Amino acid sequence: MALREILTYPFPILKKAAEPVKEFGEELEQLVADMAETMYDAPGVGLAAPQIGIPLQLCVIDIMPKDQERELIVLANPKIIEGEGKEIDEEGCLSVLDYSANVPRFTKIKVEAQDIKGNPLNFEAEGFFARVIQHELDHLDGTLFIDRISSLKRTLYKKKVKKMLRAEKEEGEK
Ligand code: NI
């Protein structure tokens, strides 16, 4: 297992739709192990493959509190086939530095996916778990939570990032 670098906005791969997972096997299991290690290390409750530069429809999720037993969920080629209700709550992202915002999501969803072996998965999710799934699936479509907030807030965030990048560059030139 190895820790991978988490790419952050505005890295271009974060804005691209990922490709379906077609080959299941040892290589995919190795990738998932790295993704899980990277997520737990961050720490975060979810990580999608594009966030470490791999353009595959693959994500790992674990919403269990740190002091409890881990429950790693691996979703390959996941799709939300039904969604109901709407709830607004605060979200952050390992790829969106120093920012969080209120994002509307379905309260309840039905998900179709494949597990790490390629077996079909069919399940329902609610509340925070449903929110995390929706957030991770967005990554697979090249969408970040900042794409789901008001354009004014998004513009302010982009300005903040530009400023941070400029400051880093100037620091590097000194
Ligand atoms: Ni994220």
Q: Helical amount among residues, as a percent range?
A: 25-40%
- Which secondary-structure class do the elements indicate? alpha+beta
In CATH, the architecture is Alpha-Beta Complex
Largest sheet, if any?
5 strands, antiparallel
The CATH class designation is Alpha Beta
Number of helices: 3
How large a portion of the residues is in β-strands, by DSSP E?
A: 25-35%
- Please identify which CATH superfamily we are dealing with: Peptide deformylase
The order of strands across the largest sheet is 1-2-3-6-7
Q: Which value, in Å, is the CA radius of gyration?
A: 16 Å
User: What is the rounded distance between the termini?
Assistant: 37 Å
* E-strand count: 7
| Chemical compounds bound to the protein | nickel (II) ion
Order of helices and strands: HEEEEEEEHH
Shape: globular
As residue ranges, the low-confidence spans are none
For the record, the count of structural domains works out to 1
Average pLDDT metric? 96
Describe the secondary-structure layout:
Blueprint: H1 26-41, E1 46-48, E2 58-61, E3 73-84, E4 87-93, E5 96-105, E6 108-114, E7 120-126, H2 127-140, H3 151-173
Antiparallel strand pairs: 1-2, 2-3, 3-6, 4-5, 6-7
The chain binds nickel (II) ion.
Describe the structure.
It is a single chain. The chain is 30% helix and 29% strand. The chain is an alpha+beta fold. The chain has one domain: Peptide deformylase (Peptide Deformylase). The strands form 2 sheets. The chain has a 5-stranded antiparallel beta sheet, sandwiched between helices. It has a two-stranded antiparallel ribbon with strand order 4-5. Strand 6 (108-114) and strand 7 (120-126) form a beta hairpin. The protein binds nickel (II) ion. Residues 93-95, 135, 139 line the site of nickel (II) ion (NI).
